[in-house]
């Protein structure tokens, strides 16, 4: 249980009024990929700095369920649900893309959007595409080893909090990557470039039938969004 500054913030995250602890807080929501990435390979394959001295592709197309429901559509849907709920609670929400019909932005630029906004929390939303028939469950990625103070305790706390709220909504932790739903990585440029607390949520494996059923249904996406909202509010509260 993270430390809280008021009894209201410690309560289940459903009250209709804003907590004073949340006033003035800024959250950046980063819906992974974009709807026109696949049609613009020359743009999204362009190398950009990865934050550790190497390069990474500007962006990727993302994955899809076996039935063809795309990751970019999933991340956009969940992100807009999260934005709507947090805005209603009085938080300032900045999105890294404004619709699901564009290209990019590149992963380093996504991180800079969070940095420029001086975000109190950044949550990137993704879903994975493992071809292993048994791989399922969510995991939270953060930058490791950390490159600055925000990537140490604050990012670790944000990762643990969102892991806990996803678990509380009944989502299973990954059985194929990371440990207890957490996975520190050095190769995720969007996390490496962040100078504010940032995590990336891989909500599930789009290739696994049970995960895909959640990821591609409106009810499932509402539950993912609700868990992420709870995690952000608990972290900030
Ligand atoms: Zn992704």
How would you characterize the overall build of this protein?
With 237 residues, this protein is of the alpha/beta class. It is 35% helix and 17% strand. Helix 5 packs across helix 8. The longest helix has 19 residues. The site of zinc ion (ZN) has 5 residues, from loops. Zinc ion (ZN) binds next to loops. Pfam families: Amidase_3. It comes from Allokutzneria albata (Kibdelosporangium albatum).
Chain-wise SSE layout:
Elements: H1 7-10, E1 26-31, H2 41-44, E2 47-49, E3 55-57, H3 71-88, E4 92-95, H4 107-116, E5 121-128, E6 139-143, H5 153-168, E7 182-185, H6 189-192, E8 198-205, H7 209-215, H8 218-236
Parallel strand pairs: 1-4, 1-5, 5-8, 6-7
Antiparallel strand pairs: 2-3, 6-8
Zinc ion (ZN) binds at residues 32-33, 62, 71, 126.
